[in-house]
Amino acid sequence: MKRMFAVAAVMTVAAPVGVAPPVSAHEGATGIVETRMHAMKKIGKAVRDLKGMMADEDDYDADIVREQAKIIRLHAGKKMTQQFPEGSLQNPTHAKAEIWSDWDRFSELAHQLKDLASGLELAADNGLMQEGLSHMEDMMGNGSPSLDALGQMPADGLVTMIIETCSDCHRAFRARKP
Ligand code: HEC
Fold first, then answer.
1. For residue 154, what are the CA distances in angstroms to 73, 129, 158?
2. How far apart are CA 31 and CA 35, in angstroms?
3. What is the pLDDT of residues 58-107, one digit of tens each?
4. Do 97 and 89 contact (CB within 8 A), yes or no?
5. First vs last Cα of the chain: how many Å apart?
6. Which residues does a 6 A CB cutoff place in the pocket of ligand 1?
7. Which of 26, 63, 76, 71 is nearest to 46 (CA)?
8. How many whole angstroms from 44 Cα to the centroid of ligand 1?
9. Residues of the chain with pLDDT under 50
10. Largest alpha-carbon pair distance within the chain?
C-alpha cells in the first residue's frame, strides 16, 4: 500500500504542468464510489445498446443481446450490493442513505436485475415479441417468475423489465443530479 502511494506521489510530481486531467462525471470520485459509478456506466451502455436493438427487428442480433445481458448480469446481484458498503456516501456520490435503512429492498432489486439479465441471456434467441403483451402478462401474474419462464419470454419484454428495475432502484435510492 505504502509503495503504491509513493509511486502515485512521484507520478503526480512528474506530471507535466499544464496538462488538464480528463474531465468526466466521475471527477473526484475515488475508491468504492468510483468503482460502482464505473460499473453503473457499463450497464448503462449495455442497456442503450439493447434498447437500440429492440427498436428494429432488422437490427436484432441474438449474440449481441446475449453479450450485453451478460455484462448486466455480472454487475448485478451481490456484485452490485457489495459496492455499497454501509455509509459510503463520499462525494460526488448520488447514492442515498435510504440504501442502508431499506437494505432488503435495495438488495432485492439488485438480485432481480441479475435474474432478469440471466433470463435475457436464455431468451436472446426468442427475438422480439410477435403479438402483444398478453402472454407476458400471464407469466408475470404471480410473483417472481422462474428462470425457465423468463427464458421463454420475448427478448424485448425482458429488456423492458430490466429497464423498469433500473428505474425502480434509482427512484428510491439515487439522488437527482444537481
Ligand atoms: C439496486 C439498485 C440499483 C439498480 C438495480 C441499478 N442501479 Fe444504477 N445506480 C444506483 C445508485 C444508488 C446509483 C448512484 C451511485 C453513486 O453515485 O454512488 C446509480 C447510478 C447509476 C448511473 C450513474 C453513474 C455515474 O456515472 O454517476 C447509471 C448510468 C446507472 N446507475 C445505470 C443503471 C442501469 C442502466 C441499471 C439497470 C440495468 C441500473 N443502473 C440499475 C442503484 C441502482
1. 18, 5, 7
2. 6
3. 989 999 999 999 999 999 999 999 999 999 999 999 999 999 999 999 99
4. yes
5. 35
6. 25-26, 33, 36-37, 40-41, 43-44, 47, 72, 80, 93-95, 106, 109-110, 113, 162, 165-166, 169-170, 173-174
7. 71
8. 8
9. 1-18, 20-23
10. 63
| Lookup result for grid cell 433500473 | 166
* All three cell numbers of 140: 408475470
Ligand 1 atom with least separation from CA of 93? 17
Nearest-CA neighbor of 110 among 99, 97, 124?
99
Task: Locate 66 and state its grid cell.
Answer: 446475449
Q: Ligand 1 centroid to 140 CA: how many Å?
A: 24
Query: Distance from the CA of 62 to the center of ligand 1, in angstroms?
Result: 25
